[in-house]
């Protein structure tokens, strides 16, 4: 069990390092073949290879300086789960996600719960953040 736990922890750290580099291929390489994402605040649920690539590409396109830093990482006793507190930030450079570009910067805490496969790859990544706070930081003041 301990080897799997260490392997998943390393995989999660590798994922967020690749995210900082904006290397989507390296991010995907951290997932098992059928790996999925579930981004709760926006109702996005599906394949990392499809929905993950779409949202990550969109975020990098709209926020070219997008980055993250791991604030805390907790490995589950089961050896198959990791919970991560992440601070994600970026400056908006173009319209996107129904947010008009005002050139504003956001810095927003996120929580990721990751479950892994026996080989240490990511089977499922679930993310939570305060979407209303994100909109407010970027100057979006209406629902439309």
UniProtKB/TrEMBL annotation:
SUPFAM superfamilies: NTF2-like
Signal sequence, renumbered to the chain: none
Domain SnoaL-like stretches: 12-116
Protein name: SnoaL-like domain-containing protein
């Amino acid at each position: 069990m301990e080897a799997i736990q260490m392997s998943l922890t390393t995989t999660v750290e590798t994922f967020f390092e690749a995210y900082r580099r904006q290397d989507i291929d390296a991010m995907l390489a951290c997932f098992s073949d059928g790996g999925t994402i579930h981004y709760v605040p926006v109702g996005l649920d599906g394949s990392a290879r499809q929905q993950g690539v779409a949202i990550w590409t969109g975020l990098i396109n709209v926020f070219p300086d997008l980055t993250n830093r791991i604030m805390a990482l907790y490995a589950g006793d089961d050896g198959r789960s990791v919970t991560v507190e992440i601070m994600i930030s970026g400056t908006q450079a173009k319209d996107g996600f129904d947010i008009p570009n005002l050139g504003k910067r956001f810095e927003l805490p996120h929580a990721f719960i990751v479950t892994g496969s026996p080989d240490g790859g990511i089977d499922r990544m679930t993310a939570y953040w305060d979407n209303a706070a994100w909109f407010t930081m970027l100057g979006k003041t209406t629902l439309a």
